[in-house]
Each structure stands twice: as C-alpha cells, then as structure tokens.
Amino acid sequence: MDKVMRLASESGVVLFSKSSCCLCYTVRILFQDLGVTPTVNEIDQDPEGREMVRSLMRLGCNTPVPMIFIGGKLLGSTNEVMSLHLSGGLIPLLRPYQALY
Q1: C or N: which end of the chain has fewer Cβ atoms within 10 Å?
Q2: Comparing C-alpha atoms, which of 64, 62, 98, 79 is closest to residue 26?
Q3: How confident is the model over 83-90, as a mean pLDDT?
Q4: What pLDDT is attached to residue 101?
Q5: 99 compared with 38, residue with greater pLDDT
Q6: CA distance 12 to 9
Q7: Which pLDDT belongs to residue 50?
C-alpha cells in the first residue's frame, strides 16, 4: 500500500491504469481534453503490479483500474469521474492542475 499511496501523492492527478484497459484510456483522454495531464501508472507494466492491485482493493476499490487520485486523495473509478463531470464537480477539482493556455 505504501507504493500506491506514495505514487498517488507525487502528482496532482494520478491514474492507475492497465495498458489494455479501454476505460483507462477514456478517463485519460477526458482529463487531457480538460487541460490536465495525469501521471499514469500502468500497473500491468510494473514489477510490483500485483501488490499494487491488492493495495487498491484494500482502499475499497471495486476494480483496481482505472483508479484516480486527485490531490493525493482517492476519487474513485470511471463511474465517480463521469458522475462528477456530468454534475459539474470535476472541473473545480482539476482546476489547480490544469495547464495554462
């Protein structure tokens, strides 16, 4: 769990992903469209990936990917991100991490 929490707090927006996950790709593109470049941790490419999956599940995640942290805090998975975006709550959370255009 230490590695997951360390990685989650190293950057403003962190996405735990698998390289073959289409929902992970969708969340990444949404963030990029909103002007945010998340730090992506591909757990299927990490030698400690299995332990990272267990850590994410211990945090209460129903599925290990995609799992999103904003400001070091667990936001959730695709459902939480999309629900927040549709209700207007995602952009205020991302505003501190948006690139200036």
Answers
A1: C
A2: 79
A3: 97
A4: 54
A5: 38
A6: 7
A7: 94
SS3 of the chain: helix, strand, coil, percent, to 5: 50, 15, 35
Which two three-digit tokens encode residue 90?
Answer: 């995602």
The token duo for 13 is: 């927006």
Cβ contact 51:3 at 8 Å = yes
How many angstroms separate the CA atoms of 16 and 39, rounded?
8
Strand, coil or helix: 44:
coil
Domain 3-95 has CATH 3.40.30.10: yes
User: What 8-state DSSP symbol labels residue 38?
Assistant: -
- Letter for the amino acid at 25? Y
Are 16 and 43 in contact, with CB atoms under 8 Å apart? yes
For tokens 């998340």, what's the residue?
38
- Contact between 67 and 77 under an 8 Å Cβ cutoff? The reply is yes
